[in-house]
Each structure stands twice: as structure tokens, then as C-alpha cells.
Amino acid sequence: MSLLKTTATLIPKPSSTSTFDSLQCGTLLQSLTNSKSLTQALQLHAHVTTGGTLRRNTYLATKLAACYAVCGHMPYAQHIFDQIVLKNSFLWNSMIRGYACNNSPSRALFLYLKMLHFGQKPDNFTYPFVLKACGDLLLREMGRKVHALVVVGGLEEDVYVGNSILSMYFKFGDVEAARVVFDRMLVRDLTSWNTMMSGFVKNGEARGAFEVFGDMRRDGFVGDRTTLLALLSACGDVMDLKVGKEIHGYVVRNGESGRVCNGFLMNSIIDMYCNCESVSCARKLFEGLRVKDVVSWNSLISGYEKCGDAFQALELFGRMVVVGAVPDEVTVISVLAACNQISALRLGATVQSYVVKRGYVVNVVVGTALIGMYANCGSLVCACRVFDEMPEKNLPACTVMVTGFGIHGRGREAISIFYEMLGKGVTPDEGIFTAVLSACSHSGLVDEGKEIFYKMTRDYSVEPRPTHYSCLVDLLGRAGYLDEAYAVIENMKLKPNEDVWTALLSACRLHRNVKLAVISAQKLFELNPDGVSGYVCLSNIYAAERRWEDVENVRALVAKRRLRKPPSYSFVELNKMVHQFFVGDTSHEQSDDIYAKLKDLNEQLKKAGYKPDTSLVLYDVEEEIKEKMLWDHSERLALAFALINTGPGTTIRITKNLRVCGDCHTVIKMISKLTNREIIMRDICRFHHFRDGLCSCGGYW
DNA sequence: CTATTGACTA
């Protein structure tokens, strides 16, 4: 009964009563297949169903199934296929093709096995799709077996089959095997060369792709647009702007004749420019495009985002909406990442409601972007809500959630997400270990962190990378186990990198250990003489001991190496607009009010017992000037701005690009009590939730 | 009667 019901809904009603003979139908179907015209196929289907023509005429039925398969309409194709008793190889091939090319590689393989079972021999038209399906499913064993069958069946020399084998090995990441197959091929066509080039690029061997291109030219082949796509991708990978521009020029010169120019290619050139960090070139090309499709917009928006220009990315997104282009999931992911960068919480939340309104499925990738945005913008509650509602919590989603808990100092929850994930059988990678270890260190969970560090190699055979060591050193160092941290570094299997020494150096600052600080700083300067933050940290340590001569020496070194401290700035979002403040910034239109507010706060805090920690000012100047310098810090400007412009009781969120200064930390704590505000501050390491004179970090920062 | 390669995402 249920079968009858599905049949009734599957087969459309005839729209006219006129009839064709089978031959006419066959010819018509052929042309419909070539033009992939699904609507006309449906009409024809209706005609031939009436009177049972289809049931009687296997030839027609086979053609119709093939037509549906090519159009990607597999339910109808399958329905007809099931009714045909005498299945020839053309029918099998068409079905396998249909599934393999329409996101159902496992169904394609299932049919292939069924075909073998039926005793139908696969041929040169079967294998390309079977190989494609194996490649897409990453079934290495099966893929190799099919390859062997190709050899046994003597179909190795068929160039279509050969190219498909190449492509499959590249999907497996087995560049060597692909190379061997390619070298042994007797016949090579342009697709063989293109497959080789794109295969190298896909496997991170852009240089190899350029070499293959050279060989291809020497062999007398002229590239087509697929060749250019591979080359552009390679240029982006190795940031070869010069060659990239040459290709752009070539496309412009040859484009008008229509041979190489199309939208695909233009979007790829935009992407190439962005990967070469030449977003301005990408922008110029973009503005000149006659037709901008959603991918054109996405490429440029993601380009701005990846180059760290979140404001431009968001501005472009705004323009996209204004001109009526329809953003898709990919747009949303880039825009969320941009919001994430500049802590634009309200804007990010608007994007989420947009996603819901448009009815986009919040798939795992969009969900992960949302969690990251919310967590990084300071709303852990919203991040958790998205995470809890996700039906599929894969590794990246868990990693982002663990990181989120970590930066908010909620180490216990981070650990429990991690173990929950392991319990579900998800295999952990390096990334999630970094996330969970750093979560432990922000919460002072020393034993738990150590346990996880050793578990990593012992139970999951993930070899620790330098980042894991730096997390461990950080974990031990913050908690005051400086000697143990130093011992970890000395016993490392790998060469300690600058992050490891930086972690120890910061711990030395926290626990005022000058001796170890000097050792770490020395190692750090050897590895990276130009990293300014190490010098700053060391002078902080000397300043805390009032060793002004040493402070001066470090400064002289910085001056000699012509290093400059990166500008420190803070963001605060107001009415979906993000305001940025630099140190001592007077450019804001409310600047006078801001400084008046700070002066007022300073007086009130002093009455409440505030003593400025001027040791954090690295200049040996008078106390009074030092004190004034502290009140120029960007986080205070942002805070004063927010206090002026928001009503009582509103939560304030501030983001700083560097580590929050120790004196500012004290000041913000006191202000949270004085003004009765919840203040959420994010710095380069983590979040600080200030409330009622206390901070969530509990000293672990 | 059929085919292989192909840009923007965490």
C-alpha cells in the first residue's frame, strides 16, 4: 500500500493526451538528457506512463531513468530502475553516475556491488564514477581494489578511467601513487594534466603544480580555464602575486573572445589576490565585475576577514544587503568571524536572527562560527545555547566550545565537554588538546591539566607540539611552580620555541622571579630578537623591582633594534557600532567628556583607597606623570565612554588587543563596585568578568 | 545511447 502511495506521488499526471511513437520519444529523451532539462523530462514521463508504454518498452524506460540520473533527480531514476527487469550496462552506469555525481557516493558504490552481484560486467563507463565515489568516501582499500580490477580488465589505457584513478589517489592524499599512475599512462589528455595540477595544489604542493604546468607546456598542451583555476590556487598558496597578476592579465586579454573568461575564474582571481594579501587588487577587480554573484561577495568578504580587516568585511556585507544580493551560509560564516574579531556582539546576534529568518539550517559549520562569535564576544550563555542545540557536535564544534569556556575561566566545564566528546568516540586532535590545556591553565587546574597532557600521548598517541608545551609551562608557571615549568622545558623532546619561553617569562613576572626571567628572556631574544612583547615583559619585571638601570638597558636594546611597541587599543560596541580607542586617544568626538569622567572616577577611587601601581609604567619619570599615563590607557577610555553612553545597570563589554594592564585591572574592579555595573573585559588571553569589586579570573591571568 | 578535472567556510 505504501508503495502504491509513493508511486502515485512520484509519477506526475499527464498534461496532454497527444502521443509520440517510441522512436520519437527516444530521440527527444536524448536531447533532454543532453540539455539536462528536468521539467521537460517530467512531461515526457507523464506521456509515456499513460497506457503502459513505459512498462512495455524497456528501451524507453532505460533512457528515461538515465535522463533523470543526469538531471540529478535520483528518486524518479531509482523508481524506474527498480521496475526494469532487463538491466543493461548502460542503465547500471547511468544510475551509478547519477548517485556519484549527486552527493550519494555510498549509494553509487552500493549499486556497483549490486551490479557485480547481478553478473553485469563493469566497463570503461562504469569505473570513472566508481572511482570518484571511492575517492569522495576516502575508501582507500576499496579504491585500490577497484584500481586492480581496472588493470585486470585491461582498461588502464582508457584515458577517462586513468584520469579518474589519478583524481582518486589525490583525494586520498597519496600524491606518490598518483604520480606513478600518471607516469605510466600511455595516453594523456588535458584533463590528465589538469587533474595532476589541481591534485598537487589540493595536497599543499603548489610548487609541484607549477612544475607540472611547465611539463604540460613542453608536451604541447595549451591550458583551459580549469588549468587557470589550479594555477590561481597555487599562486594564492605560495603568495606569488607576480604570477597571479600575469594570469589575471592573460584572462583579461583572452576573456573577450569568451574562451577562458567566466564567473568562476573571476571569483578565483579575487580569491587569489586575497590569499596574496592584496585585498586592494581584489577590491578593484570586484568593483569592475559586471555580474557579482554570491561567491564574488563571499570571496572578498572572507578576504577582508582573513587579512584582519573586520571593519571592511562588515561594511561590504552591509552593502551586499543594501544592493539586494542574497547572503548564504558561507557569507554568514565570514561575517561571524569578522564580528568575532572586533567583539561586535550585537551585530553578530543580528546575523544569527538573519540566519533564522532566512530559514537556513544552522549546520555544524555555521553553528561552530556562532559559538566562536558568542564566546569571543563575551556571551558564553548564547554560545552554550547554540552548542546544546546542535544535533551533531563534531570535533571543531567541541574545540570552539572548549576554547570558549577556557577563555572565560570556566575550566571545569571545558574539561567536561572534552571528556563528554571522548565518551562519544570522537577522536581528539592536536587542536582540542591545546584548547583544553589552555582552559586548565586559565583556571589554575594544575593536576587536571597535567593528567590531560600525559593522556594525550599515552592514550591518543598525539605527539605534543610546542604549543602544548607552552600550555603546560603556562599552567605550571601561573600556579607558581616555576622550577617544575623550567624542568619541563629542559626535558622537551622538541626544541622549545618562543611561545614556550614567553609562557615562562610571563610566569616569572607574575611571581617576581628575576633570575629565571633573565634566562627565559635571553632564550626568547635569541629565537626572536624582533618580538617586542618579550622586552616589555622583562622591563616590567625589572620595574617591579625598581631596577631602573636594567629597565633603561632593555629600552636601549629596543631602541637599538628599532622596535616599536604595537599600538594598544580597545573596542567597545554601542548601538551596533564598534568604537575604537587608542592610548591617550583624543580623536573621539566625546573626548572631553571621557577625560572629565576619568578624572572624576580617579578622585572617587582615591577616596575609596585606590593606590596606583606605577611600577607598570616603564619610564623613570615622576610619580605624578606615571599616574597620569596610567589614566591614558585605552581600556579606561573605552570604559568611560561606555559609562557615559549607557544606562545604569547595563553590562559593559570591552575588548583589548593586548594584555590588560595590572593597574587597569584593579581600577576596573573598583569601578564595577562603585558604579554597580557588570563589566566584561576581553584581552589577548582571556575574559575578565568584573562584578561588585571582584574579578572572575581569581588571579590566574 | 554514457565519462574524467573545477573557486568562496571552522
TrEMBL record:
Origin superkingdom: Eukaryota
Residue span, DYW domain: 609-701
Biological process according to GO: mitochondrial mRNA modification
Pfam families referenced in this protein's UniProt entry, alphabetically: DYW_deaminase (PF14432), E_motif (PF20431), Eplus_motif (PF20430), PPR (PF01535), PPR_2 (PF13041), PPR_long (PF17177)
Keywords tagged on the record: Repeat
Domain PROP1-like PPR: 413-508
PPR repeats by residue range: 88-122, 189-223, 293-327, 394-428, 429-464
Protein name per UniProt: DYW domain-containing protein
Taxonomic source organism: Glycine max (Soybean)
